[in-house]
Write a structure and sequence with these properties.
homodimer, 112 residues, alpha+beta, Bit1, five-stranded mixed beta sheet, 5 strands
Chain lengths: 112, 112
């Protein structure tokens, strides 16, 4: 079975690329820690796709849908030391999980 | 003790922000898997700093210095499905490790 991980980032926050990279790193690690498929996914080269949404509401919707489907998921909130207000929701990490399940959930989202 | 993780990204490759985010995610997960301090670092909120170098030679130098100091480190090479040639070295993940050890190694590098 093919496993992958999806990271969904808010594009409306106008974060710089270093900020985005750090938030994506948080999401990748936290979601991986929650997944029962981490080992297989690492063995397959930890496939990872970074997608975007343009609002907090959309980010929360994706989080909730992933939860409803029983997928391993985490919401990343920024500590607010730089650039953003403390507690700003920046991105969601989903999986590793079976690739087809993630495609059904996030197939309509665009690449960041 | 304060732990953190540093991700060093090549800025000379002109990667897009989604590409950078994916590579940083790979580095964050792979370096964390190698670290004996993962659990403490996660408990402290997985502090993460994203820095830059402007050449492959500089990236390799950082990798080697980190290894010489016994730090948990990984080199990320791109699979080359998009944007880059297969095997392109894109970034290095170091730690989690004690923050002061990472500062001595990477203190002169700029934020991405």
């Amino acid at each position: 079975m093919d496993f992958k991980q999806v990271i969904v980032v808010r594009s409306d926050l106008k974060m710089g690329k270093g900020k985005i990279a750090a938030q994506a790193g948080h999401a990748a690690v936290s979601a991986a820690e929650k997944s029962q498929y981490k080992k297989e996914w690492l063995g397959q080269g930890q496939k990872k796709t970074v997608l975007k949404v343009d609002s907090e509401a959309e980010l929360i919707r994706i989080l909730q849908e992933a939860k409803d489907r029983g997928l391993p998921v985490c919401m990343i909130e920024d500590a607010g030391h730089t650039q953003l207000e403390p507690g700003t929701r920046t991105c969601v990490g989903i999986g590793p999980a079976p690739a087809d399940e993630l495609d059904r959930l996030t197939g309509e989202l665009k690449l960041l």
